[in-house]
Design brief:
The chain is an alpha/beta fold and 212 residues long. The protein has two domains: 55 residues, Helicase, Ruva Protein, domain 3 (Orthogonal Bundle), CATH 1.10.8; 133 residues, Dna Topoisomerase Vi A Subunit, Chain: A, domain 2, CATH 3.40.1360.10. The protein is 40% helix and 18% strand. Strands 6-5-7-8-9 form a five-stranded mixed sheet, with helices on one face.
Length: 212
C-alpha cells in the first residue's frame, strides 16, 4: 500500500495502482489528477484494454526506427522512408521540419511532392539542445547526391524555431550558395506547432512560401 495526502487526509492506495499513476504522470500534459483518472479507468475496465496498451508500448521501440537519410519514422523492417524512396517524389526539393510528426501535418495538405528532413528538434540553449545535436550535417550532406535545388525551412514559428531557421539559412548559403532556400509563408500563427495547424493554414503557408 502507498500513502498519499488528499486534502490533508492520509489515503492508502494499492501499490500497483500507485505505480500506474506514477507512470502515467510522466507523460507530457498529464497532471496528477489526470493520471489518477487514467489509472482508475484502466483498472475498472476489462483487463484486455490494459494488455493491448501494454503490448503496443512494448512493441513501440521494437517496431519503429528512424530513416537513416531523412530521419522520418519508419517500420523496423524498412530500410529508408517511403517518402524518400518513392520514385514519384522530387528529391531535388527538401522540406525541413523539427519533429517526425510534422511530416504528416504537411502530407495532409496533399500539396507537397518533395522529400523531407527531420532535424530532431530546435536549438534551445535553456534545454541544452545545441546545433551539433540536430541533424543539420546530414541535411548538408544530402545536397550534392540528391542534386537539391530548393530547401524549404518549416521549423515551428517559435523563438527556438526562428533561431534554428536563421542558423540553417546561414549554413545552407555557405555550403551551397546556388541552392534556393525558402521558408513557409507567415500563414502560421506564432506559438502553434505544425502538428496542430489546420490544413487550410498549412496549404496557404506552403503556397506562399518566400525566399531568404
Amino acid at each position: 500500500m502507498t500513502k498519499i495526502l488528499n486534502k490533508g487526509m492520509e489515503v492508502m492506495l494499492p501499490q500497483a495502482l500507485q505505480n500506474a499513476i506514477t507512470a502515467l504522470g510522466n507523460l507530457p500534459g498529464v497532471g496528477a489528477r489526470t493520471a489518477e483518472r487514467y489509472a482508475y479507468y484502466l483498472f475498472k475496465n476489462n483487463a484486455k484494454l490494459s494488455t493491448e496498451i501494454a503490448d503496443a508500448l512494448n512493441n513501440l521501440h521494437l517496431g519503429v526506427k528512424s530513416c537513416p537519410i531523412t530521419f522520418a519514422l519508419i517500420d523496423y523492417d524498412e530500410e529508408v522512408s517511403p517518402f524518400y524512396q518513392n520514385p514519384t517524389r522530387d528529391k531535388s526539393t527538401i522540406l525541413v521540419v523539427e519533429e517526425p510528426l510534422d511530416i504528416y501535418a504537411i502530407e495532409q495538405t496533399k500539396q507537397f511532392r518533395g522529400t523531407y528532413h527531420v532535424l530532431g528538434g530546435a536549438i534551445s540553449p535553456i534545454d541544452g539542445i545545441t546545433p551539433d545535436q540536430l541533424h543539420i550535417k546530414e541535411l548538408l550532406d544530402r545536397i550534392e547526391p540528391d542534386n537539391v535545388k530548393e530547401i524549404i525551412i518549416a521549423t515551428n514559428p517559435s523563438v527556438e524555431g526562428e533561431s534554428t531557421a536563421l542558423l540553417l539559412q546561414k549554413m545552407l548559403h555557405e555550403k551551397s550558395p546556388e541552392t534556393k532556400v525558402t521558408r513557409l509563408a507567415r500563414g502560421l500563427p506564432l506559438g502553434v506547432d505544425l502538428s496542430y495547424a489546420d490544413q487550410i493554414t498549412l496549404s496557404a503557408a506552403l503556397e506562399n512560401r518566400t525566399g531568404l
